[in-house]
Amino acid sequence: MTTSPTRNSAAPLAANDRTGLATSPRVKLSRRRISIDHPDPHVGAQLLADALGAVDRDALDGLLKQLVKASLIGQKPDEANLAFMISMMKSIAPRDSVEAMLAAQMVSVHVAAMRSACRLAFIDDLPQQESVTRALARLARTFAAQIEALSRHRNNGERAITVRNLSVQDGGKAIVGNVTQHASMIIVPSAAAAAIDTGFVSTRDVGEQVEAEQGVA
To answer: Is 216 exposed, middle or buried (0-12, 13-18, 19+ CB in 10 A)?
Structure first.
């Protein structure tokens, strides 16, 4: 009797999980050494470099040293904190050196922001609360700016505009779903749009009129 093989399915680590991320090695910290936990050191380094977007071993070593310093808790590197930061970098999935550096900054800023939030919860002095609150707000704004910078880099420097809600009058047509348009778009004035709806002018005439008003040759 022939039986079909049984597949063991595992839940994905994240929504944007990539093949191989779950098998990338962990990083171990000793007194004065950063080591990659893998039977073959060269294979382990390559797997981790691919996950973090490092182009070579020098880039990987540099990223790991910077993350170790950013993971300090009580003036000592924290292996659990470092593992969290590396995991977050892997989930961001940097695709080149710019994204690798930006992802490292993003996880470092996030860790600093959460430290500020934790510190704020234990401060009773009002002046200190205001100081830590300002620091936390700056870190939060920086993190939001980093997300936007990553998005722009991945979209070749263009700001993406996503339209999620659209009102359609009787007889009109619309696309069902989310529509994303980059920054190179023409905005039709409301008066011109009304003229199209009433049928007094064609869309071609309105386009020429808009170009003339915007100074487009």
So the answer is: exposed
